[in-house]
Amino acid sequence: MRSVFLFLLLLNVLYALWQLQDDKAVQALYDVADTSLEQLDVVAESSSSMLERKDPELSSAQVKTSLCVNLGVFQSRAKAEQLRQRLLAWSVESEVIDRDVSGTLDYWLVYPVGGDESAALSRLGLLQAEGIDSFLITRGDLAGNISLGVFGRENNAMARQAQLQAMGYQVEIEMLEKITSEYLVQVDASARRLVDQPMLARLRESFPELQHQFDPCQTVAN
Q1: pTM for the full model?
Q2: Which end of the chain has the lower number of beta carbons within 10 A, N or C?
Q3: Which CATH number fits domain 103-178: 1.10.3720.10, 3.30.70.1070, 3.40.50.300, 3.20.20.70?
Q4: Which helix (DSSP H) or strand (DSSP E) does residue 156 occupy?
């Protein structure tokens, strides 16, 4: 902010020089301009010095950002463990990590029920007496309502909804996003150099779909 103020002050001084014709006034304004320029130089040197002092800190922070090698991706932990054991036989330490990924959508038929739990249980008994598969939802945002089935395809859910509506049940369809887990084998930054192209080629003989990528190291999940 100080450098900006001084710069604006210098502009005003120069503008005044352009307008004034009196030699003494001009000389006085030149002196002010020289002083302002000197102050700007001091500010610039101070800013440069601060940046130089910060550079080592930035470099240190960059060094601390470690990159690991992630090998995978596997749909089961058992498969990832097989790869980890293979690496261990070659004296390469690694860990299995998992992460959640969004999968496909499921379609949930829900029968809204007004009232308390006793009313919901009463309605549930009537549905089951008519041979309609149903159960009471006890958790989540839909707790207290009745589930009439979960379908993997929307057209199947809509067909069942039409059947139930023809029987007098105003059923709604709720979409559920399925979350699945996938597993990777993470080789720490200290052992990353050991995972070279010859080793990857040998691993792909047993794990044909093996992929590798360099990512920031993650905390191993328990």
Answers
A1: 0.48
A2: C
A3: 3.30.70.1070
A4: helix 154-166
